[in-house]
Write the C-alpha coordinates for this entry.
Amino acid sequence: MKYIYELKMKVRDYECDLQGIVNNANYQHYLEHTRHEFLLQTGISFSRLHDEGTDAVVARLNMQFKTPLKSQDEFVCRLNIKKDGIKYVFLQDIYRLPDEKLSVRAQVDTVCVTNGRLQATSPLDALLEPYFMKEE
Protein backbone atom coordinates (compact mmCIF):
# COMPACT_ATOMS: atom_id res chain seq x y z
CA MET A 1 0.00 0.00 0.00
CA LYS A 2 1.20 3.52 -0.74
CA TYR A 3 0.96 5.84 2.26
CA ILE A 4 0.57 9.62 2.36
CA TYR A 5 2.42 10.18 5.64
CA GLU A 6 4.83 8.40 7.96
CA LEU A 7 6.47 9.12 11.29
CA LYS A 8 9.45 7.26 12.76
CA MET A 9 9.64 6.63 16.51
CA LYS A 10 11.43 4.48 19.07
CA VAL A 11 10.00 2.37 21.89
CA ARG A 12 10.81 3.70 25.36
CA ASP A 13 11.41 1.30 28.26
CA TYR A 14 8.43 2.50 30.29
CA GLU A 15 6.03 1.63 27.44
CA CYS A 16 6.67 -2.09 27.93
CA ASP A 17 4.85 -4.48 30.24
CA LEU A 18 6.21 -7.34 32.36
CA GLN A 19 6.45 -9.53 29.26
CA GLY A 20 8.98 -7.09 27.80
CA ILE A 21 6.73 -6.02 24.93
CA VAL A 22 4.90 -2.75 24.28
CA ASN A 23 1.69 -2.60 26.30
CA ASN A 24 -1.30 -2.64 23.95
CA ALA A 25 -2.54 0.80 25.06
CA ASN A 26 0.68 2.45 23.93
CA TYR A 27 0.02 1.56 20.30
CA GLN A 28 -2.96 3.93 20.48
CA HIS A 29 -0.57 6.69 21.56
CA TYR A 30 1.68 5.98 18.57
CA LEU A 31 -1.29 6.07 16.20
CA GLU A 32 -2.67 9.27 17.69
CA HIS A 33 0.68 11.04 17.70
CA THR A 34 1.09 10.19 14.00
CA ARG A 35 -2.39 11.52 13.16
CA HIS A 36 -1.72 14.74 15.05
CA GLU A 37 1.63 15.28 13.34
CA PHE A 38 0.03 14.64 9.95
CA LEU A 39 -2.74 17.14 10.68
CA LEU A 40 -0.26 19.76 11.87
CA GLN A 41 1.63 19.30 8.59
CA THR A 42 -1.59 20.08 6.71
CA GLY A 43 -2.16 23.23 8.77
CA ILE A 44 -4.81 21.77 11.07
CA SER A 45 -4.46 22.56 14.78
CA PHE A 46 -6.68 20.79 17.31
CA SER A 47 -6.46 23.71 19.71
CA ARG A 48 -7.49 26.18 17.01
CA LEU A 49 -10.37 23.91 15.92
CA HIS A 50 -11.50 23.68 19.55
CA ASP A 51 -11.32 27.46 19.97
CA GLU A 52 -13.55 27.73 16.88
CA GLY A 53 -16.10 25.34 18.41
CA THR A 54 -15.15 22.10 16.63
CA ASP A 55 -13.74 18.99 18.30
CA ALA A 56 -12.46 16.05 16.27
CA VAL A 57 -13.06 12.85 18.24
CA VAL A 58 -12.45 9.15 17.76
CA ALA A 59 -15.72 7.35 17.11
CA ARG A 60 -14.32 3.84 16.56
CA LEU A 61 -10.94 2.15 16.72
CA ASN A 62 -10.03 -1.29 15.42
CA MET A 63 -6.50 -2.61 15.95
CA GLN A 64 -5.03 -5.91 14.84
CA PHE A 65 -1.84 -6.87 16.67
CA LYS A 66 0.60 -8.76 14.47
CA THR A 67 4.20 -8.61 15.79
CA PRO A 68 5.02 -7.08 19.19
CA LEU A 69 7.47 -4.24 19.56
CA LYS A 70 10.09 -4.38 22.33
CA SER A 71 12.12 -1.82 24.23
CA GLN A 72 14.39 0.27 22.01
CA ASP A 73 12.80 -1.04 18.78
CA GLU A 74 12.60 1.60 16.11
CA PHE A 75 9.39 1.67 14.10
CA VAL A 76 7.47 3.73 11.60
CA CYS A 77 3.77 4.54 11.72
CA ARG A 78 2.23 5.13 8.29
CA LEU A 79 -1.20 6.42 7.39
CA ASN A 80 -3.79 7.02 4.74
CA ILE A 81 -7.07 8.86 5.07
CA LYS A 82 -10.40 8.57 3.34
CA LYS A 83 -13.79 10.19 3.76
CA ASP A 84 -16.90 8.09 4.47
CA GLY A 85 -19.97 10.29 4.93
CA ILE A 86 -19.14 12.57 7.84
CA LYS A 87 -16.36 10.26 9.07
CA TYR A 88 -12.66 10.71 8.48
CA VAL A 89 -11.24 7.18 8.30
CA PHE A 90 -7.54 6.83 9.08
CA LEU A 91 -5.93 3.60 7.91
CA GLN A 92 -2.73 3.23 9.91
CA ASP A 93 -0.02 0.60 10.01
CA ILE A 94 2.98 0.31 12.32
CA TYR A 95 6.09 -1.43 11.00
CA ARG A 96 9.14 -2.47 13.01
CA LEU A 97 12.41 -1.22 11.57
CA PRO A 98 14.65 -2.09 9.89
CA ASP A 99 12.94 -5.33 8.79
CA GLU A 100 9.56 -3.68 7.97
CA LYS A 101 7.69 -6.39 9.89
CA LEU A 102 4.03 -5.39 10.37
CA SER A 103 3.34 -4.80 14.05
CA VAL A 104 -0.15 -3.25 14.09
CA ARG A 105 -2.86 -2.61 11.50
CA ALA A 106 -5.50 -0.11 12.58
CA GLN A 107 -8.56 1.72 11.36
CA VAL A 108 -9.50 4.85 13.27
CA ASP A 109 -12.85 6.47 12.47
CA THR A 110 -13.10 10.08 13.58
CA VAL A 111 -15.96 12.58 13.48
CA CYS A 112 -16.36 16.27 14.25
CA VAL A 113 -18.61 17.76 16.88
CA THR A 114 -19.28 21.45 16.28
CA ASN A 115 -20.91 23.45 19.06
CA GLY A 116 -22.09 20.18 20.59
CA ARG A 117 -23.56 18.75 17.37
CA LEU A 118 -22.22 15.93 15.24
CA GLN A 119 -21.79 17.31 11.72
CA ALA A 120 -19.61 17.60 8.63
CA THR A 121 -17.09 20.42 8.60
CA SER A 122 -16.50 21.98 5.19
CA PRO A 123 -13.34 23.90 6.16
CA LEU A 124 -11.73 20.68 7.41
CA ASP A 125 -12.89 18.80 4.29
CA ALA A 126 -11.24 21.44 2.10
CA LEU A 127 -7.90 21.09 3.91
CA LEU A 128 -7.94 17.28 3.88
CA GLU A 129 -9.45 16.64 0.44
CA PRO A 130 -6.08 16.52 -1.37
CA TYR A 131 -5.05 13.65 0.92
CA PHE A 132 -8.17 11.48 0.67
CA MET A 133 -7.63 8.05 -0.87
CA LYS A 134 -9.25 7.86 -4.28
CA GLU A 135 -11.73 5.08 -4.86
CA GLU A 136 -10.58 2.71 -7.61
